[in-house]
Amino acid sequence: MVAAPSPVPAPLPAGAMGLGDASDHAGRPALDAGRVARQDRMREHNLSLALAEVVGAREPVSRAQVAARTGLSRAAVSGLVDVLVAAGLVRELAPVALPRAGRPATPLVPAPGAVAGLGLEVNVDYLGVRAVDLAGSVLAEHVEHADLSGSDPAQVLERLAAMATDVRDGLVATGTRVAGAALALPGLVDRGAGAGGPLRVAPNLGWRDVDLGPSSPLAALAPLVANEADLAARAEAHERRGDRPPSFFYVSGEIGIGGATVIDGELQAGRHGWAGEVGHVVVGTAPDGRLQVLEQVAGQHALLRAAGLPTSAGLSELERVAAQGAAGTVTEVASALRGAGRALGVALAAVAHVADVDEVVLGGTFAALFDVLAAEVTATLAELVVFDAWSPVRVSAARAGRYAALTGGALAVLAQVVARPSAWTRPSAPVASAPTATT
Asked: How far, in Å, CA of 168 to CA of 179, rounded?
């Protein structure tokens, strides 16, 4: 019924409220604008702590549990929860009897459908929109498949803006408040230039230096912009949350291959947000002597060609032929998949040596082909990783499902609601607001 305690930031000390003994000439306490501001910040901080405990829990939690985990008093938590319930951010379930003597506990859960974040994505073979609420439920989704390689960015973004606007307007019409949007792109997003990009390069799309600011077709949505693998890794970390924050290296296997490092539940994106580009790690040499990077050997198009299929074939067809290869009925396919698994293991061994990770998570195409790739990847890691004898690198399949970057984008938006809940507890709470922080 209740989730196990997990470490959380300590509440601000009482002294942080700025209580002083200053007074005016009449002996009355002087108005201290700084004190008021600090009190507001502390209230925001504590509201955020309480909401984060409810939203992040695997199972419903009680007020007493929130108090125990945050270090706040039960009375303080009760008041904070009352505010969150009144604002429609948290919902109370029917009280349940406790195994010990005392009043029944009232379980708390994120309010379904109250507030949603929009995850947007442009990838090489599709674009999509997904709306997710604080409870983690998908409220709406629209995905269109198309070959977007060499496409015009303005035209694609205009189409995506129309899709997102339709989804947003539909949610608002049902009473859901939309907190903002986040856009996932399969390339280098210059996070150092701000939360809105720009996109420096997306090789498989053929896009370069795409402005995603005020002049973009998406300007009205003002999305946070991030790399597709980073947002997919955020969704995966959310799916793996538990007593201990998860740590892993996520591999996003699509037509391109991206990656992202998560340590103790936090994304390690690098100075510009460009960390994790595992698809560009050199894994061998082609017959003509040119160096080969991982994408050229294990990307979805490379796998389709190795399986004797056109690059226009879908993932389901690749899975079918891969299963035949694994069964030994199509030996050339089996050989190609072993080669792809070997190359993936070589690249991930380099990641393990540099980033000191003890688990790699295969997502996207690699998750779909996990049963035929995992053994070769695991064997290669065991052969190459120098610390394998003491800490072998585990290989697991992603749990976040298909189009994980769409979910991760929505979660990035909702993280801002949790970080600043007071904006959503007022009667005039915004219908839409742009996220301002990085992923």
From this structure: 10
